Amino acid sequence: MNLHAEDDVIAPVSSGTPVAALTPAPDADRAVASRTRTFDNARLRKDFAAQDAFLYLDDFLAPEVTAQLVHSARSLLDEVNRNYLPGHKQGGSVSRHTIDRLAPFIAELYRSKELIGWLEQLSGDQLQVSPADDPHAYALYYYTRPGDHIGWHYDTSYYEGRRYTLLLGVIDESSCRLDYELHTRNPEVPDQPGSVQIPPGGLVFFDGDKLRHRITPAGPNEMRVSLTFEYVTDPNMRPWRRFLSNMKDAIAYFGFRQVFRQMASRGKDAA
Ligand SMILES: [Fe+2]
């Protein structure tokens, strides 16, 4: 594979101090409930099923949550790890490990019982947070340079069960679009293409193995940041799949140091 890092594959690991929260920091559960109780949830559940496990809402998050996420995304710009995979991906990311240290509100939102309960209603599945060593559990993705994009792919589950992706719009000063194709895994239904530009506070929720999708390239002087949360129905993973998943994350997303130092420290704890 022709592969090289655009800047550095090994992520800089700073000992930065946590990003000061906007005061007062929102209560994640209360803020989520303030929105989800206003929705026609029976209708959304039907839409999700009819679109083969996919839903887009242009206005999901409470404004105070969006404001907090925008603040965090801008504050974490120095922590971004950039990667370049020719023909597939170019962009930056901040992994959960950095978020845990520097932007704990995002971790709180990820674990919000109100949020998880609402996603369970939509999907009809019991959802669990991803294991502590999965850097995709929650991550920020940055499209800040011309050509930043990610090509067509699925969010493949390396777990025993299903893997759902929740994509939240944070900053969108860009022409980037989420292009997608529904029903590609279902031979009975014709593929149905779609395309959305996700505004701050907007949501996309889907089963990663079912939705074929991409983010189109950013233009000059553009900036887009999205936040993704990953939930699973069974957090177990066979060892060889864990290895594949870690290699993919190290090369394509977060850098070897981010991915493997977590494993190393876990090994030490266990010893
Ligand atoms: Fe994806």
From TrEMBL:
Pfam families: HalD
GO MF annotation terms: metal ion binding; oxidoreductase activity
Highest taxon in the source lineage: Bacteria
Residues in Fe2OG dioxygenase domain copies: 131-233
Assigned keywords, A-Z: Iron, Metal-binding, Oxidoreductase
Region forming the signal peptide: none
Similarity comment: family membership: Belongs to the iron/ascorbate-dependent oxidoreductase family.
Protein name: Fe2OG dioxygenase domain-containing protein
Organism, as annotated: Paraburkholderia tuberum
